[in-house]
């Protein structure tokens, strides 16, 4: 019966796709948008069914092979061949599809459910399935549960950010295994050159992540310099030409320069490397802490290369959601320090479903309409998405009940909406604290009475049961200090003789750990109260205090 229904639906859609219809041609803009949204939802639902189907096909073929007294290895090969023919893909691609589908079906029911309800696209689901490949089934279940609790925040993300979040969670759950996974992945380094259309070629190199980030930034900086000197080629065209020139020795290539590549690591990683969190490379994504640690030690101990230096700056994240706290400036153009902070906080283009590198800084509320030059009103975007007003789109900040920015909602001219939030730098810690708060509320009679009077569906997925994922008690963190303006600035700087902040002990411990690395510290915050600062003249920045509730 199901086969007959599917064939009937296919026949109708085939006829409509091949010949069109008068009703489709006469459809309004809103009607066409609704149709496309329905098609996307149908694609996601079909992909979830296809995942189950290919896993069932694999199991059935393997059982048949074993009945024929064939080896398990031969059975796996036959199953992959059958899947490749059914999916109309190569054996290698079909093998990857089988592997990610198997993980989704058997270990990640939350992701499969999200896919079936179009809360994530197929590419994102298979990206998550690929990232958790080396993990155990139990670790995959834990990653699945944490990601499922953040669906509303991740729906507007691109597939690469979905994978990044999964990688950070897996790293936090198994930091020792992360180093082993990284060293195993390094063995697969390779370069591939493929022919593309119209006499062009595509060069792909699989190398360690930090090296890749350096290459991209070096080419991007050189391209920006060429554009500033009047080169009329596009940014990407210049990067491609410089890449080829450097490799084959044509022209001058890229001049050796000192590049500033940002890597975000947690204090926990410095103080306890055995339980480290994943490092976040600016404009690239999550990498195992062991990879970042190797580069840090190499920079700290380098004597041959005077340009190779390690500088650590302190950043402070919101304890509730894991994103970086705010900074602001009174200038219209984003000053270098504020721009750098935005690039670290946002990592990739913040437009919905976009994973492109950040090229430009955008005022969400335009400067001409009174918008501030601040983190709350700043968005790192690629060049294409920074033209949103020209294409009829608008963006607005969505704040929580305390007035704190949580997401940015984009709306098209015809009313389509999508949201994109900041990056959670500590997804496991955020999950742990949210779960602890939920359990505390569930045992509070007054909170239960208030909740019983509320109506409407919840905006977040239901919290896990007591017997669900166990990640230990929530970690308590002290109130973070502010970064103040320079001494003597109007309405602001810290006075001489101020009492030390209560977090001095923890800061001293971190200072000692950094001193052991023989690194140079910059931008150390002065310790003082957490009052919200006013506007100040100049282009220096202000880091506001804790927003923990």
TrEMBL record:
Gene Ontology terms, MF aspect: endonuclease activity; nucleic acid binding; zinc ion binding
Annotated stretches, region: Disordered: 435-510, 526-549
InterPro entries: HNH (IPR002711), HNH_nuc (IPR003615)
SMART domains linked to this entry: HNHc
Keyword Hydrolase annotated: yes
Keywords: Endonuclease, Hydrolase, Nuclease
Key word Transmembrane present: no
Domain HNH nuclease as annotated: residue spans: 337-387
Biased composition annotated in UniProt, kind: Basic and acidic residues: 526-538
Residue spans of biased composition, Polar residues class: 445-456
Protein name (database record): HNH endonuclease
Species: Candidatus Brachybacterium intestinipullorum
């Amino acid at each position: 019966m199901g086969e007959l229904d599917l064939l009937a639906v296919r026949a109708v859609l085939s006829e409509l796709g091949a010949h069109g219809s008068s009703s489709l041609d006469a459809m309004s803009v809103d009607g066409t948008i609704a149709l496309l949204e329905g098609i996307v939802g149908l694609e996601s639902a079909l992909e979830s069914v296809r995942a189950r189907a290919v896993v069932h096909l694999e199991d059935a073929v393997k059982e048949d092979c074993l009945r024929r007294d064939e080896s398990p290895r031969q059975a796996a090969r036959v199953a992959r061949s059958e899947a490749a023919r059914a999916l109309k893909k190569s054996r290698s691609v079909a093998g990857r599809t089988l592997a990610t589908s198997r993980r989704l079906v058997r270990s990640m029911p939350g992701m499969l459910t999200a896919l079936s309800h179009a809360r994530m696209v197929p590419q994102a689901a298979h990206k998550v399935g690929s990232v958790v490949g080396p993990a155990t089934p139990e670790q995959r279940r834990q990653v699945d549960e944490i990601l499922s609790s953040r669906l509303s925040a991740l729906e507007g993300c691109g597939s690469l950010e979905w994978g990044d979040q999964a990688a950070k969670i897996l790293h936090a759950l198994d930091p020792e295994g992360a180093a082993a996974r990284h060293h195993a992945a390094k063995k697969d380094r390779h370069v591939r050159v493929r022919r593309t259309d119209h006499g062009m070629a595509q060069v792909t190199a699989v190398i360690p992540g930090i090296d890749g980030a350096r290459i991209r930034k070096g080419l991007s900086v050189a391209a920006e310099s060429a554009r500033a000197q009047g080169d009329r080629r596009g940014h990407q065209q210049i990067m491609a030409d410089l890449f080829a020139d450097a490799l084959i020795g044509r022209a001058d290539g890229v001049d050796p320069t000192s590049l500033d590549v940002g890597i975000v690591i947690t204090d926990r990683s410095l103080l306890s490397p055995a339980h480290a969190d994943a490092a976040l490379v600016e404009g690239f994504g999550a990498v195992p802490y062991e990879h970042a640690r190797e580069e840090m030690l190499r920079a700290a101990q380098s004597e041959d290369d005077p340009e190779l230096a390690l500088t650590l700056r302190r950043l402070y994240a919101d304890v509730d959601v894991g994103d970086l706290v705010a900074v602001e400036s009174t200038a219209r153009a984003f000053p270098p320090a504020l721009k750098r902070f935005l690039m670290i906080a946002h990592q990739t283009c913040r437009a919905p479903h976009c994973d492109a590198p950040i090229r430009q800084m955008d005022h969400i509320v335009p400067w001409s309409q009174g918008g501030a030059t601040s983190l709350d009103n700043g968005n790192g975007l690629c060049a294409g998405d920074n033209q949103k007003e020209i294409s009829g789109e608008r963006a607005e900040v969505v704040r929580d009940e305390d007035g704190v920015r949580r997401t940015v909602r984009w709306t098209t001219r015809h009313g389509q909406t999508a949201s994109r939030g900041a990056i959670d730098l500590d997804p496991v810690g955020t999950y742990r604290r949210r779960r602890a708060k939920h359990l505390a509320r569930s045992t509070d009679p007054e909170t239960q009475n208030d909740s019983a009077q509320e109506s409407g569906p919840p905006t977040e997925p239901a919290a896990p049961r007591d017997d669900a994922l166990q990640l230990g008690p929530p970690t308590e963190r002290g109130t973070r200090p502010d970064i103040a303006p320079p001494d003597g600035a109007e309405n602001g700087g810290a006075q001489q003789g101020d009492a030390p902040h209560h977090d001095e002990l923890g800061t001293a411990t971190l200072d000692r750990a950094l001193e052991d690395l023989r690194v140079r510290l910059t931008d150390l915050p002065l310790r003082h109260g957490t009052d919200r600062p006013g506007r100040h003249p100049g282009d220096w920045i202000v880091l506001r205090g804790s927003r923990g509730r």
